[in-house]
Amino acid sequence: MTERVDGRSAADGDGSPDGVPGTTAGSRVRAEEPAPPADAPPADAPHEDAAAPTGGPLSARYLAFVSATGLSSLGDAAWVIALTVTLTRLSDAAVAGAVMALSGVPRVLAMLGGGAMADRRGARWTMIRTDLLRCLVMLVAAGAVYVWAPSIPLLVCLAALLAFLGSFFVPASGALRPRLLPERHLVRGNALYLIGLRSGQAAGGPVGAWLLGLGGLVAVALVNAGSFLLSAFATLRCAPRSIDRTTVRPAEDEADGPAPPPASTLHRIAEGVRYVLGNHRLTVLMGVVALTELAGAGPLNIGLILISDRMGESASGAGLLLTGYTVGTTVTFLAGLVLPVGRRAGVVALAAMAGSGIALAAIGHSGELGVTVALYGLFGACSAQAGLVLVSLVQRLLPDHARARVMSIMSLLIFGAVPIGNLTTGVMIQWLGVPTTLTVQALLSLAGAALFAGDRALRRSSLE
């Protein structure tokens, strides 16, 4: 689940002893909706999926959703490549790196607000409006670059604005997936979603480089605008088979008085946080996500370069290590699409987290490029499998009125792990060396597995 760019007080649904809705002796985690928090305003909650979702991952609605995800990620990746190249031409590598790092700050800061917006306005319409706004930004960018030529202040503003808008798209996407699929197909749907996401990211790099050489930054911005427009159209086609209402308010003749004013964004964010903290199972899952992401973020980003340098392979070796990781994740996603985890989801997640830790420790003590590439493949396969199970468990535990806000908290943990992981991994490698650093990262992954195993219901959870 570690991202390189992109959940969890449940009411006792059937008297299960562990308090997990839909469990039998704590052996199953299902999406029975828990009682909403006392302060959750049902009058404002979106009901895009009032009817039970039908159809599987290969249905037209869900394929439209996956297409929207792929197109959106392709446009993002193409723009990032073109932006990085342009920045290095205008300044140097240090300035380009600083700009790219700072441009991601708005995404992290606004992520929780994006989840609150998706819960209030509806996940699908939040995605559509975000894509339309990003399309408009890219059209303005193309015109500005054409008229004034690219400059660092202009590119910084554009990068920060796109990152800010992305903070609305990510949690809305995570909230919409369970509304399009029956529970039994959620794992397969998540696997197909990740295939679309990674395919778009992989295609976006070469497309961005080709367009940059063909027509400069203006061409990349125009194509990116087109990708966002197509993404909005595809998302429009994937409406759940129910009445899609952005807000639901009681009729005036049924209400006891005037409708209360809508809750503020900060109030809604606080509700989402309280919902997680009031649910032991969700709190545990968030802790597991944080630990596993911190374990893998550094070794998969700055660690690729530093480990490759240690073996005397430089950038070409880092590319091979990334390829190994990508192959591992792809195999897992394809396997999850064909043979999703079922009754043994908790056991599979534990094994995957343990496998990630073992692979990280072995990478730190490996001195051969071929062996290290294979270990990165194992690391990718295990981390992807753990991510599929963890995300699916989170989605099943969430009711509609809080889903996007909780998904935004999880997304914040995922995106925030990248800069923290890069910083700590770089410092530890410099002070402690690669073997010790990767052992520490392995222990973080194993700590996540231990935290997961400490909850009996999660340990015995099913995703059938």
Low-confidence stretches: 2-52, 242-259
* SSE order: HHHHHHHHHHHHHHH
Provide a count of the helices: 15
Percent in helix: over 70%
Q: Mind summarizing the main beta sheet? A: none
Termini Cα gap: 20 Å
In total, the number of strands is: 0
Structure write-up:
With 464 residues, the chain is an all-alpha fold. The protein has helices spanning 60-90, 93-103, 105-121, 123-148, 152-180, 186-236, 265-277, 280-300, 302-310, 314-338, 345-364, 369-397, 403-432, 434-453, 456-459. Helix 8 (280-300) packs across helix 9.
List strands and helices in order, with pairings:
Blueprint: H1 60-90, H2 93-103, H3 105-121, H4 123-148, H5 152-180, H6 186-236, H7 265-277, H8 280-300, H9 302-310, H10 314-338, H11 345-364, H12 369-397, H13 403-432, H14 434-453, H15 456-459
Record keyword descriptors for this entry.
464 residues; single chain; mainly alpha; globular; disordered N terminus; 15 helices; 0% strand
Short description:
The chain is mainly α and 464 residues long. Helix content is 72%, strand content 0%. The protein is globular.
